[in-house]
Design goal:
The structure is a single chain. The protein folds into two domains: 162 residues, 3-Layer(aba) Sandwich (Rossmann fold); 194 residues, 3-Layer(aba) Sandwich (Rossmann fold). The chain contains 18 helices and 15 strands. It starts with a strand and ends with a helix.
Length: 410
């Protein structure tokens, strides 16, 4: 095995599943448990994840804090991940080629952040993302591998009938709610409105993977609600979308998943521009290992589709009580916005031909035989500035530690 797909949450598996088909015998999934091992439901999540991988019949190995990294990663030439992590930064992995597979639009402070400088190659969805990331990493636009089945299968089938259909009333249309996590999540604000909507729609709630792992309090109002189905992270969002007549989202990349497959979208806009410039910019320590950091800004693409008439792709809702009216209008206005949506799809997604996974597999094979090119000039300059700042912080911390020791009364 020379390629590893490094995954940390269940949804990561679905990013690579179809790609792995084209790399059979050349790739393994590496379940990096270092993050989920700290989550509130860590025991249940780890066991369920392992069972899921067994049922999926893919080659996989588990990396945890007790594993010797040199021995574990020695078999791989290329590590593929959707974000940079402590595992990729290990000394044992310094010489390995690292590849980023983009997994969504939205939250551009994070999505197009300087951490992308660590990747030898980045697979993007299209021209928009490539333009943003090209200064930091060599980019190749491939489309969206996770959605290949939407465009490749001549006779598409729905994969989750057993899980979803028992909760579906065929006389109703289906509303799929795909919220984001953290301070940008709408989950705490719309439980009553979705309960009301369940009178007229089948309501499916599929939370963000980080909410499922770290924010169980957000989910309590949705459990055991009549007419509301709560899904976990072990179902592929791309396939769940086949059951949706309309999508409801907030600051999530799911907005653009719905755009890609042309499902009508209602977008929640409860966060006004001052929030992104002020409160959202505040760093907050959540626990011993996690921080809340700024993820987005008013000019990020998921905010612009809420305010820019030239990017109007769905109904915009500024307060929860307006959700019902937007759900009535969206099926009419969806047809009226068809040209705008197609123009934006062309900018965001270079390919919609069902061959994105094949492109990634071909590029990964080619990368194995190439020498490492090193960081791009801007990425290298950023890396030096960060290293200098960190060394200054370390020196200051050492000084403060000495001063504290000097003044401790014994």
């Amino acid at each position: 095995m020379s390629i590893a797909f490094v995954i940390r949450y269940p949804f990561h598996f679905f990013l690579y599943q179809r790609i792995a088909h084209f790399l059979a015998g050349e790739v393994e999934f590496v379940l990096d448990t270092q993050e989920i091992a700290r989550a509130p439901l860590r025991g249940r999540l780890s066991e369920t994840f392992r069972s899921f991988l067994e049922r999926s019949a893919v080659p996989y190995r588990i990396y945890n804090r007790t594993t010797a990294p040199v021995d574990f990663f020695n078999r791989y030439d290329v590590l593929v991940a959707n974000t940079f992590s402590d595992t990729l930064a290990l000394e044992a992995n310094q010489r390995r080629k690292k590849v980023r597979l983009m997994y969504g639009y939205a939250k551009e402070l994070w999505n197009f952040g300087v951490w992308s400088r660590h990747f030898d190659l980045t697979f993007t969805f299209g021209e928009y993302a490539e333009r943003m990331l090209e200064p930091l990493s060599r980019c190749v636009s491939v489309g969206v591998p996770q959605f290949d089945a939407w465009f490749a299968d001549k006779r598409p089938r729905r994969r989750y009938d057993r899980e979803i259909l028992p909760g579906i009333d065929t006389a109703k249309q289906t509303l799929l709610y795909l919220p984001t996590h953290g301070d940008l999540a709408s989950l705490p604000h719309v439980a009553a409105e979705l309960t009301e909507a369940a009178q007229y729609f089948n309501v499916i709630v599929k939370p963000h993977s980080l909410t499922l792992a770290w924010e169980p309090e957000f989910l309590a109002p949705y459990r055991d609600r009549p007419g509301v189905m709560l899904l976990d992270d072990f179902l592929d969002t791309a396939e769940v979308l086949r059951y949706a007549d309309v999508v409801l989202s907030d600051n999530s990349g799911a907005i653009f998943d719905a755009l890609l497959v042309d499902v009508p979208i209602v977008i929640l806009d409860f966060w006004q521009q001052p929030y992104f410039a002020e409160s959202h910019r505040v760093l907050e320590k959540l626990d011993a290992t996690r921080w809340r950091i700024p993820l987005t800004h008013a000019g990020s693409i998921e905010q612009r589709v809420k305010s820019d008439p030239d990017l109007s792709i769905g109904e915009i809702v500024t307060k929860p009580s307006d959700i019902a009216g937007a759900l009535e209008r969206v099926f009419i206005t969806h047809r009226q916005r068809s040209k705008t949506r197609e123009q934006l799809r062309i900018r965001l997604f270079k390919y919609r031909d069902g061959r994105s996974s094949e492109r990634v597999a071909t590029a990964l094979r080619a990368l194995q035989g190439e020498p490492r090119r090193g960081m791009k000039p801007l990425a290298k300059a950023i890396d030096r500035r960060i290293a200098t700042a960190l060394s200054g912080l370390e020196a200051e911390a050492s000084y403060l530690e000495r001063e504290i020791q000097r003044h401790i009364p014994y």
